[in-house]
Amino acid sequence: MAEPLKGSVLLVDDDPAVAKVLGALLVQAGLTVHTAKSGAEALSLLGQKPIDVVVSDVRMPGMNGLELLGEVTRLYPDVPIVLMTAHGTVPMAVEAMKAGAADFILKPFDREEILFTIRKALLRAQGDVERSPLKTSAFVGRSAAMAEVEALLTRAATGTATVLVRGESGTGKELAAKVVHDASPRRSGPFVKLHCAALPETLLESELFGYEKGAFTGAATRKPGRVELANGGTLFLDEIGDISLHVQVKLLRLLQEREFERLGGTQTLKVDVRFVAATHRPLEEMVKKGEFREDLFYRLNVVPVWIPPLRARPEDIEPLARHFLEVHAKANGRPPFTLTADALQALQAQPWPGNVRQVQNFMERLVVLSDGPSLTGEDVARELARQPGLMPTGFQAQTAPPSTTAPAAVTPGSEPKTLESQRRDTERQALLDALKRAGDNRTLAARLLGISRRTLYNKLEEQGLL
């Protein structure tokens, strides 16, 4: 193995023998292990512990592994889940991937295989992979620019040409890929995603093409890759600009010939796959610098689609804000909210560098932290003030009025707090406030603070709040 693994794994299996043996193996590899005998117990632990990866059996009484996968994906979208089964087939793998599984492994499994699989899942969990905007949200709005984008995607969907979606982070590139798939004749086939920036070259290659038994340490069985799983459907390659030149060569052949070999294999496999790629990187400049193959760029750029940033279509801010307000009010069990004119003014004054995703997160924060039912400019300004770099013109967070008297002299024994102690006090209060607002739901508290669950637990530990 390479360096020891670091992270926290929740092992879900109703067989105590499997849990004991596998748990001991993972602890020996350096991981913190929590165990659950059922899906319900697993969901309870996820709300209490800083879990990086869930490893679950498929066949369990009560809530099975696929049902648990659905709940984890819905409630904890930042936590990848790996499924284990003794009855694995390619159709089951396709079903698991479509439902959002990070990976799947077959029982009985080899020590190196399970560690290899969990290493990949940890890389995904600990990487900076942001959640996508809610489905249908990127195309909520009234701008002519987005109407043109949707029309172009719909036209492109009827064919088989590769689509390259360009745009800044948070604009809805994954949603655009799903629009292509859902409007295409392949809509009944699988829609398989691969985030190319989340994995190093060696893992990306095995994830893309699959591997044969014995191809490398940890390859205890043959395993199909994402290309094979997407046969008859669509493969979405997100952040295509981050792949290495070595993988670019293999991907070029796949795009040209629709054929490939698994790692460690000699058999050439043919696939019927529609490709949609996305990136926020300037591929033309990368081609000039020799960082991206020119022939691959032209293979990908058959139907280019640019999604404009939100600052270029400010007329979409209001409908997006209202849409997310309604969605998150329902999701959090709150009554309907309304926006006052000054609240809309404050929202529309923002540049929203994080685009649709940032608006989504901000409106969720407003729903949870505001009393409602009417959200005012003061409510918006209060939450904007808690986010560095976001403050609308004409609005200012409520602060104490400036003093007109000279500052009092510092008397012995009453020295002012250091900057570090003030920072810790402020951070502690923010943590307590978020936990209170979230009803002690730590996952929600982390989202309100704009940090990961792992970071929240680290800060709670630093502050002695665990």
SSE topology:
Layout: E1 8-12, H1 16-28, E2 32-36, H2 39-46, E3 53-57, H3 65-75, E4 81-85, H4 90-99, E5 103-106, H5 111-126, H6 144-157, E6 163-166, H7 173-182, E7 191-195, H8 201-209, E8 210-211, E9 223-224, H9 226-229, E10 234-238, H10 245-257, E11 259-260, E12 269-270, E13 274-279, H11 283-288, H12 294-300, E14 303-306, H13 317-331, E15 338-339, H14 341-348, H15 355-369, E16 374-375, H16 377-385, H17 419-437, H18 442-449, H19 453-462
Parallel strand pairs: 1-2, 1-3, 3-4, 4-5, 6-13, 6-14, 7-10, 10-13, 15-16
Antiparallel strand pairs: 8-9, 11-12
Provide a short characterization of the protein structure.
The chain is built from 19 helices and 16 strands.
User: Which CATH architecture of the largest domain is right?
Assistant: 3-Layer(aba) Sandwich
Helix share of residues? Answer: 40-55%
Compute the average pLDDT.
82
What is the CATH topology classification name of the largest domain?
Rossmann fold
Number of alpha- plus pi-helical segments: 19
The tally of domains stands at 3
- How many whole angstroms does the radius of gyration measure? 25 Å
Shape: globular
Structural class: alpha/beta
What is the strand content? 5-15%
**Spatial ordering of strands, largest sheet:** 2-1-3-4-5
CATH level-1 class of the largest domain: Alpha Beta
Q: How would a textbook summarize the main sheet?
A: 5 strands, parallel
Q: Distance between termini?
A: 33 Å
Low-confidence stretches: 128-138, 391-411
What's the count of strands? Answer: 16
CATH superfamily of the largest domain: P-loop containing nucleotide triphosphate hydrolases
